[in-house]
Every structure is written in structure tokens, then in C-alpha cells.
Fold this protein.
Amino acid sequence: MGNLSPLSTEQPGLTFDSETPRWVFDFFPIGDSVRNLLKRYIESGMLGDRFGRMQESELEALALSFSDGKWSDGPAATLIGHLIETSKHTEIDLQAVTRWILLHHDDPDAVSICMAADPPSQIDIVRLLPRTGSQKLVFEARWRPAQRRVALKRLTGPLLDAERVLERESHSSPLSIRHPNIIETYSVTNKKNETFLVEEWLDALSDDWNPSGNQEAANLLYSLARAVEYVHQLGLVHGDIKPDNIGKKEGRFVLLDFGICRSAEKFAADITATGSLRTRAPELLMNDEYGRNPKATDIWAIGATLFNSLEGRFPFITREEPVPRISHLPEREEFERKLKERVSNEWSEWVRFDSTVDPFKSLISSCLERSPDMRPDASTLRQTIERDLPAYIEEGTVERGTSLAPVAELEQLSKLLSLNDDVYLIAKDDLGRLKARVLLLKERLASGQDPRVTDKLQSLGALLDA
Amino acid sequence: MPRGNVVRIQDPVHGLMEFRGLEGIVVDVLETPEIQRLKRIRQLAVGHYVFPGAEHSRFVHSLGAAWLAIQFCRQLRYATRGYLTDVLRPSEIAIADLAVAALCHDLGHGPLSHAWERVVIGDHFDRGALCTTLGITDDLRHLLSDAPWHEITTAGLLLWKDGTLHQLLEDYDQGSSMRIARLLRGRYWLEYLPSLLSREVDVDRVDYIRRDTHQTGVAYGRFDLAWLISTCTVGEFDGRWVTGFDSRKAPRVIEQFLAARIALYDTVYCHRTVRAVEAMFKSLLKRLKDVPGAIDALPGGGAFAKSIRGEPLSQTEILQLDDYALFNLIHQIANTPGTDPILEDLAKRILGRDLFKMVPISPKMIEGYVWQEEAQEAVYEKLYRVIRPYCPSPAHVKYYLVHDDYSVTYFNEKPKKNTEDEGEWMRRHSSFLIDESRKATAFQKDEELSARKKRLDIKRLFTLDSCSEAVAKVIQD
């Protein structure tokens, strides 16, 4: 995120503290400071037209938004300075600014980005999202005609780069229409004919997200494998798989954010590694390039995402360690150096499973192979999941999005039938369906199951036979 | 065998009712003599004395309940997708089973329905003897230990080996008559299904509230049926699956429904003139009990006489009992020379609509006066003294003063003598609201619904029109 430009001249009511360095108010508390400051500016005629016409109630709401949003002096002063500057040459929607101040505590950059966003008509910016990266801004927005929550992306950087990103990103549009594990994306333009991307709003996972059990973990793994298999079959690499790029919709997981996605050839030619450091493959950390097999970096990222959700940390990072943002370059470079060190000399200490058991352990460790060529391709990964975790995969993950995993089915059948005296009266056809289902479950639950599952299956079979 | 194609029946309340595939069994069952008898039993017993349109029968109500059972089941099938494994969602057979059960739920009612049971059968009839006479086996008998008379006779008709209904069901699927009989007692292999038959909100109540409203012409019993059905789903209560209604969408329609039911009790079922007619039947049947042999000689009187004497009836005898036969009997009593004068008088009054009147006095005053346990005989004697001069036979004044004590509650309430675990009782008797996480809360435990908890208590006295004012005056004085 870019820093705000400093105020051009010395401003009455604000003082620049060169030690911090930051702007501070001359008054306290903050709401009063803002009110007094703006009043003084209005009276002195130093403000732009918009502020000059400001209603008393608007001024009050704006002033209060700082105290309600619990802003501290420095960031608030920086933002006020920016507002004053901007108002001299641009119309400002004060009501929207008031809402953004409330939603972006102590983040003047975010508010100013929202102000500058200039969204397409019918779309209102709600707030800037943490998913924002170096090449694009991501907003939570509201699509006015349907009052629907959407994610709005604006591409940043030089125009040519932006167009390239747009081209890559719009790969997700035809993809999404055909795949239930990939987000749907549409492109729209604003008055200046700048292109934005709009996606259905899905709550993304976070680094702290944990699956509720084996079933959810298996389905996360399976959904990602299915989505990536599809992307790879089209010759593309996603390039940025991580928890905050995974959404959840009606119980299934959906891969989001195709901002880095491009063809494997283009990845191979790129010299700079992109995507989050948390799920970045070791070959990228070490060499900063994709090499011959860029698709394998997606597989690593799937493994790292699952590793984090089960072990509570990413492969080379401790749970408590903050990952410096790209805007804080020195800290970031130092952190990357640390990661290289861990990859080179401390591999076994870091890629270590403390709480994950088989079959998850073997599946995830295959994704976290040091050598990219040793990792399974996405199709093999998907097939292995189907082979090793059939009990947990929800049949409808792709087809219907509704069916239950076999273990859940078994649990339901055991619970209902064992408590019921009327099983002996089931109609012949219903009994036939039940028996057929139990047989199918037996097949799907055959390999690598714990003895409790086997016991339940046996007693269920005996009950139905009796 | 069930019909394969669609069978369409027009209904004044639900419009076009279509029965498809296995649901066609409903139409086959309709044609059996056991169900056909219900055409001769009015749904509202003597309601037509006050509401001329209330001539509809238990037959058409049962058919409506069966159709509703199919609608609710189809909704449950939809609402449980993704939640229950497919084999535990209502199958076509389960839907047909529930529809047949709904069709048969009133099978065993006697003439005048509940009034018959209140007056002739009573609460303390010999259930064991009735089960034995009806050939009900042990696997069902224990479920009938506290059942009312008509539920035992329903089971008896379903399991009657010589009956057309039983044979039809067994041809359809061996063992299905027992399955339906147990389903009507709340037992089915899909444990959440039986509650659609007997709860605060069930297919029986849903149909009778709509139908009785339509037929009587009152405006109180309206509620949004389509919305109610659309909110029906399955959730968990104490680790077991129960049927209920979506707590986000259903509370308003459920309030509407519960209020509609209470309003119907208030204005139709317990209408003072309706209850006055019932009071006269009560007196007539009581007199029949007191004069054994009075109707033995009358044609068609045998089954009635046996029942009035408290003897258990066989299935064949049950099939002889209906409103037509009862009214025919009343005709004969009224017009046969030499009949008991009290019976003759009451029969003539019933046929000529010369009805008892409600004593015009507040329920509170009646309660304070008549229900004084210690002095009851003395109290009654004071009233009899006023009525006697107007009786055809002063010695039999007791048949001309009837008290009516009735109460209806919003929610099913656990009887005090019932020792069953509270949670288990609720699972078997309550309707539920089901939240987003599929957790079920019984209606009476829901804060919002239980705030409307209400009880309709009725306490009245009925007597001859000519002395009702005088009786009121005695009580007031």
C-alpha cells in the first residue's frame, strides 16, 4: 500500500513531529480536534469547495467518526491533511468518507485508497480488504441494484502491467462458469473506462482457520486438488494458493483470486517469485524463480495450506511469527533470508508433523516434497485423495454439493437404526435400498479405517440381515 | 396393487389433489368399507345444528390429511437433502405409508366422534378386553395401554384379517398393516416421520382447521398453509431426529395456526348451542345406559346396546356404528310406541331441534356454585327443584341438567400422572422450532411462542329453555 503524500504546506491546527515522524493534532480529544480544525479551515476559506459547503451535521458526523472508530492522533491528522489537500481539486463524498473512517481504524492509507477508487456505477465501496496485494486493490463493495455484497478488484501499477494482470485474472471467468471449486468473476468498467473485476462475496479462510474434523480437512484438500487440477489442465498456474484465497460456499471450498494466475510457460520465464511467503515453495524461496515445473508450486501451496490448518503453522514459519508486508522492504528481505536458512539447513525441524496422522500425513507430506518433481501432479493428488480418503469426501463436492461423506452416512445409519424397534417392519424395497447403501459404504470405507468404523458396519449389516 | 398413474381428486379446501405413483395406494384404501364408513360420520358431529354448512364427513377430512401428509413429506425430502443420507430421507414408500396412516387416523371413531367416547365409552373402559376382542397382538398392545377407544379400534380395523383394508395393505406390502398401525402410535423406522400425524402442528389439525373454517364459514381459522409447509424440516432434539419448523421463517405462521385453532374451539367446536346439542345427546346416551335393553329390540340397535353396556365390540360391529345409524335409532326411539318416556322426549327434542339452553350465567359463578365438592348434592337438588316442573318425568330430572366442563390448551401438556422423562415425553408429543444448526426447541420452550401460552376453559350448565333463567336466578341468589 502506498504512503500518502505529505501535506504541501504547513497546516494550522496540525504539527509535524519529525521524530516520529507524523502529523499530530493541536487539540484533544480527537473528535473536538477534527471539528475545530475543519471549522477553522472553513472560516479561513482555505478549503476546497466541498468542505466549504459542508453542513453542520456532516461536520459533526465526520468528527465523531474518528472518535467512534477509535483513531489515534497521528493517523487521524494524516488523513485530515489528505482530505484537505484532496478537497482542493476533487469532489469528496463526505458521507462515504465518514463510513470508511469508521471501518478503517488508524489506516489513513486505506481511506485514501477507498476515496480514490472511483468504482463502476451501481457499485459502492464498503471497505478495503486485507487481500489487497502489490498488483491490485481488493474491496468489499455493494452492488446497488441487488444490494448484494461483492468483492471488487482494481488493478494497480503501470497500465501495461495492469492489462496483463487483467488478462490473467479474467482467465478465471470462463473457468468459474464450469467449475464449482473456482470463483465466478466478471469484469466491469467505470466512467473512465477503467476495468474492475467483480466476484461473488465469499468469506475467505484465515491463517487461524481449523477444520472441524477429518471430514472438513479432507474436503478442503479435495476441493483444492479438483480446482488446481482443472487450472493445470488448462495450462495455467494459480500461483497464490493460501487460506485467504480460499472461500467457502454452501459447504464447499472455492479457490479465489486469480490475479497471479498465468500460463505455466510465463511463470517459468518469470524471474521473480510471487505469492504469499507463507505458502511459497522452497525452490522459489531459494532461487526466486519457478524453474521447469511451476505447477509444482501450486501443489506445495496446497500442502502448506493444509499443513497450517492441521499443525497450526506454515511449514517454515512459527505460529507467532508475523510475515512482514512487501511495503516494509528491509524487514521483508530479512525475513526471506531467514526462510532460506530454514529451508537450507533446518528442513527436518520445520517440515515436521506433530499432530497430523495418516492418511492426511502422507498425502500432505507428498505435496511438501522438497524436490518439485517428487510432488504429485494435481490429477494424481486428486486420485490419491479419492483412494485414501473416500470415507470423508462428500460425494457432491463437485457434482451436487449436497451429499454426505461416507463416515457421516455411517454415523447417521447406525444412530437411527440401532435406536429403532421398527426396523423389522421396513418395506422390502426400502430395506433393499438400505442394504445396498451399506454395501456401498463398506466398499468406500474398506481401506485404512479405524476399527470403530468396521464394528459399526458389521453391526449395521447384521441388523439389516436380521 | 397400487395404481401406477396419477389419480386426481378435487377437494373444496385444497383444490386439485394429485396422487402419483405409490401414493395411489391412498385411492385404493379410500374404496375399502372401513374407510367408506367415515363418509357416514360427520367431522363436526352436531356442528351442523348451528353451522348449516358443517355437513362434511371424517372421510373428506381424512383424505385431506392424507394429501397434506404427502405435501409435508415431499417438503421434508427436499429440506433434508445434504443433511440426511439419501436412504434416511422419506422414500416413496415412506411417503405412501404416512399418507395411508393419515387417511386411517380417524378410522375407529364412533358416531358423533369424540362425543360418543366421552359419553358412552368413558375414560375407564377395559382396554385389554377390547384388544382381545379385536385380535390385537402383543407387539402393538403395549403401545395402546393408554390409548383412547377410537385409536384401539383403528388398530383393530387395520389388523383385522377378514377386513378388506387389511387384505389390501398386505397385498401391497406384507406387514404394512402393522407398520401403519405402529406409525399411528408414533413408531416408524424413520423416527422423525410419525410426528407429522399427532402434534401441536400436524396434518390432522392442519386439515381440520382449514376444512372446518371453510365449511362453517367462520373467518377465524385462516393461516398461510403453503408457507407453513415450506418451513417444515428435520432437526435434532436430545440426539434424536425430530420434525419441526424453521425457526427463522415459521414463528409468525405458527402463531397464526395456534391462534386459529383456539379461535375455532372458541367459536365453533365449543359454540354454546353446539355444546347444548351435545349435552342432549349426552343425556340421551346416559339414559340408554341407565335403561338396559331399551333398544335391544329396535332394528340396528344391537351394536349400540352392546357398546352402551360397556361390552367390547368386534370389527363387524364397529362398522355398523355411524351417525346415520344413530340418527335412525333416534328416529325409532321417537316414533316407537311404548319407548321409555325420557328417551322418547329427548329423541323428539333432538330431531325437532328443541334444544337445551345455556344457563345465562358467568363461568366463574358456575364454577363457584356447582363445583363445590362438599355440597354438590345439595346444590344440584336446589337446581333440580326449579327444573322438575318442566320435565316430562319429574323423577328423572337429572337428564335435564347437564354441565359442560372443557378446556383446550395451545400446547400439548404432559399429564400429571405421566411418569415418562420430560425430554422423552416432549420428543414424542411436541412440535419443534428448528434453528440454523438443526437444533430443535419444543414450542412450549420457545420464548416467543410460549409467551402466547393460553388456555381456553369452558364451564357451562345446560337445561330446558323454559327454566334456564330460573336456574340462573337460583345460582345468582
About this structure: The two ends of chain B are 69 Å apart (CA to CA). Chain B has a mean pLDDT of 91. Chain B touches chain A through 26 residues (CB under 8 Å). The domain at 7-249 of chain B is CATH 1.10.3210.10 (Hypothetical protein af1432).
